[in-house]
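Lecture 7 notes. Example A: sequence first, then its structure tokens.
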Amino acid sequence: MQYYLAINGQQAGPFEEQDLVANGMTADTMVWTQGMAQWLPAGQVPELAIYLQQSATGGAGVNYAAPQYYGNDYLANGAQPQQHQPYSYAPPENYLTKAILVTIFCFFPVGIPAIIHAALANGHYRNGNQAEAERCNRLAKKFIKIAFWIGIGYLILVLIYVIFVASFAASHHIF
């Protein structure tokens, strides 16, 4: 994946991940790649953590606007990038089907937020916002688990009740 760096207030790049440190990236250097909503310090981009050293040096502290999208290429400050590769990452797991199933069969009050977050994750993925898609997926998965275990607990309680009623009826010769 290729990233742009903001060095001394100027955009540089794109650079391959492994070349970022050699081109001046520190934890405080502002970075951007296709799919990111805004420039972020490299220390806040999980994919770059392995390339950063433990001690961070001072950054420019300037808030950069994300390059604007025109067709298939990203332009920043009116300059055409020298090299361009499409930003791609594996699509996140789609939890929408699971969310719908736990809503129908387990516990719908918790299943509804699971559906909402799963749908949001799919939308964020389509818009190229990987971080937000992953966050929504984590929430959807959490709500799915909660709804599932509440549904299982309810099923166990119903089975205990049925066994109790059946044993009471059998002991009193009701059936």
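Example B, a different protein, same format:
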Amino acid sequence: MKHFNKDPEEEEFYEKVVTINRCAKVVKGGRRFSFSALIVTGDQNGKIGVGYGKAKEVPEAIRKGTEKARKHMFDVAIQDGTIPHHVVGKSDGGQVLLRPASPGTGVIAGGGVRAVLEAVGIKNILSKSLGSNNHLAIVNATIAGLKKLRSAEQIQALREHQPVEDKA
């Protein structure tokens, strides 16, 4: 029995289907259905990506969403299994509050926010969804919040490069 080696750059990713939406188009002969899939992909070690795929069939929509998610991955600042500071992410009507939590708290989040936080590898966090209940808006707001995060080292480096003005 032969074993085929996977590409070394293709790592194992955590993939989660957040939602699948069915859309109907009424035509002369009846209804034509198409599907959209919202996919969250991460390595559970600080990398995350979100993809939205649309197709005539569910598996194809999921495949397209997964490809887009892997293509648009980015790094997130994680500190001791949580986030370095609190942040509010906004996107469209969605607004998500993310706060760091002490070890043992777990992921206090629901729906799309939980999928994103588990995929990125955060173990302890508090979150609250403010605003829209739309899955896409909430996931994008969570991603916007994670993109705002900066580690203490990143902030220190920024401060060293900018001259401090004296307010005298």
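Note on Example B: The longest strand covers residues 14-27. Strands lie at 14-27, 30-42, 47-55, 74-75, 87-91, 94-100, 107-108, 125-131.
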